[in-house]
């Protein structure tokens, strides 16, 4: 039995789950206490193991289901490939972990995940004149290196300011890579305004005799909290 995600049982009244296409067939509910699981009984995840194209298509469909539910409900999304040998095994798992799952759903209530990617642009430093030799070349190379370190220090300061701006507004941040952040925040919040305020604060610092750092950002749409679900839950090893 394939499992997409979990919602509070009250969500059942607002979702017509059988109108959402699954990976290979129809979706349905399995309930346990205050939990409701979105499942597909006719899809074995291991069926995708021998075909990369089939696997990618299944992952895309998995995310499509989660997005469809997320559009109107708080959902605890589970990773692709989460399945149980039987309905009984699923129900037992939900009973065993019900408190933890309900707490996670409550913590994610009206929250969304947003991917934020940044890139910094600055004027290129002039190349070292080719006519410089010996000590003069060494000194010019040293000065260029110091200038690059100076620029990196300001970039790090800019990043720290951004993280402070986000933290002050109750936004949780997960750093996926350098200048790639995943944000957990209230749905429909104004990220553009926050980033504009960040830029204004950077400009208020005295930057005399140092290159101006310009930041370009790109943000995703609001997504189910894929990564933060893992932070809230250490999914049971028996899955």
Please tell me about this protein's structure.
This protein is of the alpha+beta class. The protein has two domains: 108 residues; 109 residues. 40% of the residues lie in helices and 21% in strands. Strands 2-3-1-4 form a four-stranded antiparallel sheet. A four-stranded antiparallel sheet has the order 6-7-5-8. A hairpin with a 2-residue loop joins β2 and β3. The radius of gyration is 24 Å and the shape is elongated. The N and C termini lie close together (11 Å). The C terminus is likely disordered.
List keywords for this structure.
4-stranded antiparallel β-sheet, 2 domains, disordered C terminus, elongated, 40% helix, 5 helices
Adjacency order of strands in the biggest sheet: 2-3-1-4
Mean pLDDT: 84
Helical percent range? Answer: 40-55%
> Helix- and strand-based class?
alpha+beta
Gyration radius, rounded: 24 Å
Discrete helix count: 5
Strand content range? 15-25%
Find the count of extended strands (DSSP E, 2+ residues).
8
Poorly predicted ranges (pLDDT <50, ≥5 residues)?
Answer: 235-239
In angstroms, what separates the terminal alpha carbons?
Answer: 11 Å
What's the number of structural domains?
2
